[in-house]
Amino acid sequence: MINRSDLENFWTRGDIHTRIHKAMSEAGLNDRKLKIEDLFPIDQYHARGIAATVDLGKRMPISENQRIIDIGCGLGGPARYFAKQFKCFITGIDITPSFIEIGNKFNKLTSMSKQVSLQTGNGETLDFEDETFDGGYSQHVTMNIKNRKDFFLEAYRVLKKGTFFAFSEHGLGPEGNPIFPLPWAGTAEMSFLFSPKSTIALLEEVGFYDIQIIDTSEKYISGYEKMINTKSKNEKHILGIHVIGGATMKQRSINSMKSIKEKRTLPFEIVCKK
């Protein structure tokens, strides 16, 4: 069974507060009001960054003033983007306290605290009443969730009838296990991948319907190649997911790209209804 503290240590890699503060100081972003765009290089802590967030947003039917849940919100980058883009209100939860603390500070710096609220929580046991939200989403979180059915059950429970649930993940491909370490897991003990077919079956079992799936493999291969080539050219970027992910992020990204190319993993997005 995966240890929660081990998972947090994997994602934060030590003193994340100091690293982010140092990077933001070097980029001239500390102690002043920011635009949400200023933080895109660091607060979109998932493969393809803001491009993946924009793509998922295009598939989500969010309306103005709706209340949306972000399960596994990280630093809150996608939540701030969607809140601004759709003029909605987003509650984000994440198991990593340091992400929540920094994310709420980012909310204040970008004047988004009225629309975005982040709190510590577990996606398998959400601390909300039934049918609280007008929609929900999750980005690159489920790969660390062993009890996938419990995760989907909780998402289903807190959503109102007639609303949507959307998520992106790397699923298990037809050609075997991925190559470790990966951006979301250092070893196989931290990674729980399901095939698209198995994922759809679980969603249907929980009660979701009208399940739409899109293969995003080529987009992720292109995204990884761009990031890897940038690092290979020694182009200096003060802000980036390397600030959080550390020196091993390049190799983990190479492994993820190779896993997709060899059909060991299959990235996809899903949008479904309750």
Question: If you had to describe this structure to a student in words, what would you say it looks like?
Answer:
- The chain is α/β, with parallel strands linked by helices.
- The chain has a single domain (4-273), classed as Rossmann fold (3-Layer(aba) Sandwich), CATH 3.40.50.
- It is 41% helix and 19% strand.
- The chain has a seven-stranded mixed beta sheet, sandwiched between helices.
- Helix 7 (148-158) links the parallel strand 4 and strand 5.
- The longest helix is centred in the last third of the chain and has 16 residues, at 217-232.
- The radius of gyration is 18 Å and the shape is globular.
Summarize the structure.
By secondary structure, this protein is α/β, with parallel strands linked by helices. It has helices at residues 4-12, 16-26, 40-43, 49-59, 77-86, 97-109, 148-158, 196-206, 217-232, 242-245, 249-261; strands spanning 67-71, 89-94, 116-120, 133-139, 159-172, 209-215, 265-273. The protein has one domain (4-273): Vaccinia Virus protein VP39 (Rossmann fold, 3-Layer(aba) Sandwich).
Average pLDDT value?
92
Strand elements, count: 7
Number of domains: 1
Low-confidence stretches: none
Oligomer: single chain
Reported CATH architecture: 3-Layer(aba) Sandwich
CATH homologous group name: Vaccinia Virus protein VP39
Order of helices and strands: HHHHEHEHEEHEHEHHHE
Structural class of the helix and strand makeup?
A: alpha/beta
Total helix count? 11
- CATH C-level class is Alpha Beta
How large a portion of the residues is in β-strands, by DSSP E? 15-25%
Strand arrangement, major sheet: 3-2-1-4-5-7-6
Radius of gyration: 18 Å
